[in-house]
């Protein structure tokens, strides 16, 4: 990005804007725990009917 020459903070969107000499603008946003990614269960494989179980019933 090069050396930053300007900083601006948007209070409505809570984003930090950083400008540089080469006319590049970078935007940074703080991600709190409320916006964290979740881990999903993997989809069943095509050869798995989803009815079998490895544990006895």
Explain how this protein is built.
This protein is mostly beta strands. The chain has a domain at 4-31. Helix content is 0%, strand content 32%. It has no helices and three strands. A three-stranded antiparallel β-sheet has the order 1-2-3, with no helix packed on it. The relative contact order is 0.18. The mean pLDDT is 72.
Tell me the number of helical segments per DSSP (H or I, 4 or more residues long): 0
Structural class: mainly beta
- Strand content bin: 25-35%
Helix fraction bin: under 10%
Radius of gyration: 23 Å
Average pLDDT confidence is 72
Beginning-to-end CA distance, first to last residue: 59 Å
User: What is the string of helix and strand elements?
Assistant: EEE
Shape: elongated
Number of strands: 3
Q: Which spans of ≥5 residues are poorly predicted at pLDDT below 50?
A: none
Characterize the biggest β-sheet.
Answer: 3 strands, antiparallel
Question: How are the strands of the biggest sheet laid out side by side?
Answer: 1-2-3
């Amino acid at each position: 990005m090069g050396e930053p020459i300007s900083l601006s903070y948007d209070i409505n969107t809570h984003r930090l804007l950083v400008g540089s000499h080469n006319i590049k603008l970078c935007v940074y946003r703080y991600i709190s725990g409320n916006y964290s990614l979740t881990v999903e269960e993997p989809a069943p494989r095509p050869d798995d009917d989803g009815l079998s179980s490895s544990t006895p019933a």
